[in-house]
C-alpha cells in the first residue's frame, strides 16, 4: 500500500502541495483529479522521489528508495521516447533500468505489442511510428516489468476511444493482478469508468477523498431526473427546486434540489398517485462535483 | 551497479555508433594517410618526370665502370653514348652527362648540363677524379710501396661537437607544449559540446521523468559521465594504438628512417614529455570540463539552446588556452605557478611546467590531487542537483532556472 501522510511542497512563494494525505491500495485504482496546477504532478513527483518535500511517503511501510523504484511503473503526462532506438531497444533499456534482465523481457515483447495492437515490428525505429503507436510503446515500457505500483499522469490524454479502451483494459488487468494504481485525469468519465477511489486536489489541498460512492453521497441526492408532461415553468415553481435543466430527450428534465429530503414531496406532487415514466433521485455526477469543488472559493 | 552500467553502456554506444564520432576519431589518420599518399604519388610522378641523375660517357670502360660503382644512385647506367645523352638531356630525363677520358696521364672530366652539377655530386666526382689522378701519378713516378704510402698519408681532421642536449630539450619542450595544449583544447571543445548537446536534448524530450522513476538522477548523471569518459578514453587509446601501429608500418621506409636518424633524440624527448603524468592531467582536465558542460546542458530550457549551453565551458577553456600562450617560454612565472594548482586551469598550466621541468614531484602530485578532488566534488554536487535541473523546464532566465532547479532537488 502507498501511504501519503501530511505531504507538503513549496516552490518559492507557491504552495504546490499542502498537507496532503491519502492511501493507494493494492488491487484498487485511485483517481487523482484536480484542475491544472492543483498539484497532481507535484504529488507524483514527490512519490517518485524527484524532489524534496515535507511529510511522509511510504510504500509498504518503507520509504521509497532506488530499489523500491523497480516496483513502480510511471507514465508521465507528456509522452517521450528515445527516437533513435528501435522498439525492442527502448523497451529493453527501460526494463534494464527497472532491474530486469534482457532475457526475461525479450520473450514478452511480441505479446505486449499484440496486446496493444502496435502497428510496427520490434526492430522498427521509434521515430518511424505514428504518435498513437509511440504512446502505446511508452505504455508497454511502463507495464512490461509487472510493477506493483502504477502511476499514470493523464494517461488518456491524446488517445482515441479505441486506444483509450485498450488502456482501460490493461489497467484493469493490472489491478486484477493486485497492482496499486493511481492516475490523474481531467476526464471524469474515465475516472468513473475505472476508479475505485478518488482524491480531488484544489490548490494543493485534498478536498475530496474516498470511494466513488462515498464521495458522491457526501453531496446528497440533490439531482432529480424526471420524465414528465409537466411544463418547464411549473417544474421551476416546485418547492426546494433551485434549477431546472431541459435534457435532450423530450419531456425529460433535471431538477436540482436544495434539500435531498424534498424528493418524496416532489414525487407525490408530480405523480399524483399516477404512473410516471422516470423519477430518479441521484447524487451529483463526478463531473458536477468536479465543477462544484473546483469553483469553490477558499475560506 | 547494474543500472549504472546500463546507463554507461547506453551512453557509450550512443556516442560511439555515430558517423560523426567515427569521422572525428579517424580524421587524423585520414589526414596522415591522404597527405602521405599525396606526397608519395607526387614524388613518384616527379621522379618519373625528371631526375637528378646524370649519364657517364667514356671510351675507357674501366673508368666508366668504377665511376658508376662509386656513384650508383647518381648515374643512369643505360645511357652509354654522347648522342643518347644529348637526347636524354633534351627530354629532361637526366640533369647532364659527364665525359671521362685520360690524356697524357691526366684525367679529363667535362660535365655538360643545363645547370651546374650539384655540389654533393661535384664533391663525390672530384674525390673520384683525385683518387684516379693520384694512382696515375704514383704509377708514372714509379714510386716504391714505402714512398707511395708516405705520400698517401692524409692529415687528421677531427671535430669535437659540444653536447647539444639542452637545445634539443628546449625544442622538444616547445613542440610538446603545443601538442599538449592543442590536444587538450581540441578534445575538450569537442566533448564539451557533445555532452551539453546530449543532455540538453534529453531535457527537451522529458524522457528524464521516466528514467528518474527507475534510477536516481545522481546515478544517471554518473552513468552519463562515465559513458562520455569511456568515449574519451577510447579516443585517446585509438590515437596511441593507431599512432604506434602507423609507426610500425612506416618505420622501414627510407624517408622515415632518415628522419628517425636525424631527429631520433628530439622525438624521444617529445614522447617523454607527453606520455607521462601529463596524460592524467589531460584526462582529468577533459573530465572536469565535461562535468561543467553537463551542468550547462542541464540548465537550458529547450534542446535548441544546447549550443548556447556549452558556451560557458567553451569560453573558460578558451581563456585557459590563450592564457598559456604568453607563458610558453616562461613556465616559472608566478601566474603560471598559481594557475597550475587551480582546477580548470591546472590541466593546461601544470603540464606546461612539467614539460619545462620546473615543477617538483610534490607540486605535480598536489596539483593532480586538487584536480581529482575538484572532479569528485563537482561531480557529486552536479549529481545532487541534476534531477532538479533536468526536471524543471521553465523558459525563464538562467538564474531563475538554476534557483528553481535547486528548489526541486532532493
UniProtKB/TrEMBL annotation, chain A:
Domain of life the protein comes from: Bacteria
Domain ABC transporter: 2-228
GO MF annotation terms: ATP binding; ATP hydrolysis activity
PROSITE patterns noted in UniProt: ABC_TRANSPORTER_1 (PS00211), ABC_TRANSPORTER_2 (PS50893)
Assigned keywords, A-Z: ATP-binding, Nucleotide-binding, Transport
InterPro entries: AAA+_ATPase, ABC_transporter-like_ATP-bd, ABC_transporter-like_CS, ABC_Transporter_VariousFunc, DrrA1/2-like_C, P-loop_NTPase
Record keyword Transport present: yes
One Pfam family from the record: DrrA1-3_C
Segments forming a coiled coil: none
Entry protein name: ABC transporter, ATP-binding protein
Organism: Ligilactobacillus pobuzihii
UniProtKB/TrEMBL annotation, chain B:
Short name of any one Pfam family annotated for the protein: ABC2_membrane_3
Record-level GO cellular component terms: plasma membrane
Membrane topology: Multi-pass membrane protein
Superkingdom of the source species: Bacteria
Subcellular location(s) of the protein: Cell membrane
Location of the ABC-2 type transporter transmembrane domain: 19-378
Keyword Lyase (UniProt): no
Residues spanning the membrane: 20-41, 171-192, 225-250, 271-297, 309-327, 361-382
A Gene Ontology molecular function term of the record: ABC-type transporter activity
Keywords, comma-separated and alphabetical: Cell membrane, Membrane, Transmembrane, Transmembrane helix
Keyword Cell wall biogenesis/degradation: no
PANTHER family listed in its UniProt record: MEMBRANE COMPONENT OF ABC TRANSPORTER YHHJ-RELATED, MULTIDRUG ABC TRANSPORTER PERMEASE YBHS-RELATED
Protein name: Na+ ABC transporter permease
